[in-house]
Specification:
There is one protein chain. With about 725 residues, the chain is an alpha/beta fold. It folds into 4 domains: about 160 residues, GIY-YIG endonuclease; about 180 residues, P-loop containing nucleotide triphosphate hydrolases (Rossmann fold, 3-Layer(aba) Sandwich); about 180 residues, Rossmann fold, CATH 3.40.50.300; about 90 residues, Ribosomal protein S10 (Alpha-Beta Plaits, 2-Layer Sandwich). Helix content is about 35%, strand content about 20%. Helix 3 crosses helix 5, helix 17 packs parallel to helix 18 and helix 18 runs antiparallel to helix 19. It is globular. The structure holds a DNA duplex (12 and 12 nucleotides). This is Replication restart protein PriA. Component of the replication restart primosome.
Length: about 725
Amino acid sequence: MIVEVCINYQDANVDRTFDYLVPGHLEELVEVGKRVYVNFGVSNRVVEGLIINVKEDTNVEREKLKCVLAVIDKIPIVSDEQIKLAFSIKNYYATKLGQALGLIIPPFVSNNEIYIICAQQTSDLTLEDELKEIYNRILKRPVSANSKLAKENEDKIASLFLRGLLRFELKLLKSLNEEKRETPTEPQYKLTKDQKKALELITSTFDKGIYKNILLFGVTGSGKTEVYIQAMRYVISKGKSVILMVPEISLTPQMIQNVKRRIESEVVVYHSKMNSSQRQRAWLKLKSGEAKVVIGPRSAIFAPAKELGLIIVDEEHETSYKSEKSPRVNAVEVAQMRAKINSIPIVLGSATPTVEHYYYAIAGKYAICTLRERINKALPEVFVVDMKKEILDGNKSIFSRLLLSEIEKNLQRGEQVLLFLNRRGYSPIVICRECGYVYMCKNCSISLTYHKDGYLRCHYCNYKQEYTSICPKCGSKYVRQYGSGTQRIEDEIKTYFKDARVLRMDKDTTTRKDAVEEILSKFKSKEADILVGTQMVAKGLHFPDLTLVGVINADTILNMPDFRSKERTFQLITQVAGRAGREKQGRVVIQTFNPDDYSIVAASNHDYESFFEEEIKIRKTMGYPPYSYIVNFIVVSQNEGFAKKGIENVYRLLEKCTKIVNLKIYGPSESPIFKVENQYRYHILVKFEKASQMIDIANMIKERYNYNNAELIIDVNPINTL
DNA sequence: AGCACGCCGACT
DNA sequence: GTCGGCGTGCTC
């Protein structure tokens, strides 16, 4: 018996599998998805590997074959379906199989912890007895022909198992206090016509057992959640499970509450602040099928849901679904792969769908349902203020006259205000007026942001230094802070409205574990009149008395050097605007220097279609997605010269491809932010005509790039090219 | 990642 | 002559 093993998931610079011989005493233990210990390389290091195939024969010469030393897991920690998913990810994102598996294998799996928990789950023996039995079975037999090595390996493995034995006692104590669960209450909700249609489409697609993207296009407050819940109930009633993806768990407490209350099965919530034992419990509940619903952000798409029947991606346009760390996967794309593997529907919900997805929907590639009505109230009234004109009229304030007067009215009425600015800190640039020196991060090519606590901070690497008002370059004392962040908005708004109670929500005020919930509940219970915040406040929040939203500067995203900047602007304005007047009539004031830009005009008219029409024309003439497929090849090194050499290697490889397929190469050039955390970055952007060509060439470059002095990052379908 | 193999410069 | 530099390639 032979097993095909993927060695050391994460970093080993090998992207192939290896065959190992299974000794007789391990034959009944090996299974696809279990981990094994094997000898690897000339020095026979003991390494961990994952079995991805069990077979009778191999092409490898017998004398090369080594034996499996031990089987680590009692049950597979990765299912067949998840292994298929790993291969899809490897192929599409041009990663190594190990990297793809690394996303799927739960991070808490270390040594034999899973073995221990699983033993606890399945055995009739006491835990300790079973562990001892396993220990004896695996270790008290010859593991390899070479007896010297065998002894060393035994010692190594024995020590791993002993560590496990110590842990198991703690686990035993913990498992005695099992959590209890609220029983769901079975209320009937009446659906609107549109909701009914959407639900029917989802359930009938599910019944057919086919892979299909269903775009659920509905404005904020049109009742998407109700469609999700009823669809989930249907799928669960047929014995299947559901993954519900949300962009950020701490901002969707209402939805989670709703789902928990209305779903028959146990609901597991994944979030980044869970500790290792909470994660283990969640993982096991899904794996065993005890829980049929998992809700969570990006990582939830890798959850071990058993017999998956439906995937729902809420706010599918959110960029947080894309990982910024290598491998740069997009959880929405991964969700599509997983839906395809399982032949199930995937629901993409949004009020502002991505241009690509909407394009596929109207082209007939995806199904689409539109929820037109806003269930409670009319949409808010939107005013666009031209800030050029404000300046011409002598208004030097950050706030337009209209915004100030609207805030005033709101405060008088006892209603609440939300002020949105996409930038934290006090001011983003500190500059010497004598010599022009801009305070820069010493690790990144980024200007430092002045914070109110007297420190200058880099928002890329968190480097901080004390602020001195004397220029470090020329010694002048004419140093000035330019621009505004949320801290400054908070300060200045207090000078205009001295009695107003102001709260601020951004990365700086929410580092503590429950900080987000605390700020939101304070605002909800009307302990504050004005909430100032970044991106965080734009999403999903619902406050009955919030009737005015101010967008301080709509241009921050618009001016980014990215072909999606208009789309992002439209989405963000629409989203923040959606926070106003969810029950009473709301108003929105948008401050901008580009009042005529179509993304801003369309957002102010709540008109997705006309935004889309303008945007798709530009995408077509410029050859951007969905009319092309983009890959960003980035080469990174601490040494500038190495990075440059690396990107030149990539360029040479790409040039050869121009003879075979039609592609457009932009670069090589320095990345827009050249240095990040002391790493120099060069990149080449490549546009392909066909997805298949993109995949082939990205994989070819990955295979052939062998310059070890600089790391190559392949970003397929990049969201952020900075 | 490790480790060996291999092909060039400055040394006992 | 040979010790060691690290480029290249392999690991079942």
